Amino acid sequence: SRPIGELRYGAPLLRERCEEILTLVRPGGILVLSGLLAEEADAVRVAYGRCGAPETTLDGDWAAHRFTLSA
């Protein structure tokens, strides 16, 4: 078994389920994707690119994106 720190499914799952996740946010709503490894944050931003440019926060090895969806 691998240590918990090596389980890396967050960003790939968010990319894979992008369309499904976006159906849960109403137009004009805000989507926050947090707990991302900084090294994977750009790939997640690209996957959600149709939401526009996110407000991104970096804190050491961690990142979060805040998207405001078009109304």
What would your notes on this structure say?
It is a single chain. Strand 2 and strand 3 form a beta hairpin. The protein starts with 9 loop residues before the first helix and ends with a strand. It has about 70 residues and is of the alpha+beta class. It contains three helices and three strands. It has a three-stranded antiparallel sheet with strand order 1-3-2. Helix 1 (about 10-15) packs parallel to helix 3 (about 40-45).
Which tags fit this structure?
3 helices, disordered N terminus, three-stranded antiparallel β-sheet, 71 residues, alpha+beta
Radius of gyration, taken over Cα atoms and rounded to an integer in Å: 13 Å
Strand order of the largest sheet: 1-3-2
Question: Distance N terminus to C terminus?
Answer: 46 Å
Number of helices: 3
Structural class: alpha+beta
Strand content: 25-35%
Describe, in short, the structure shown:
This protein is an alpha+beta fold.
Task: Summarize the SSE layout with pairings.
Blueprint: H1 10-16, H2 18-22, E1 30-37, H3 38-47, E2 55-59, E3 62-68
Antiparallel strand pairs: 1-3, 2-3
Helix pairs in contact: 1-3
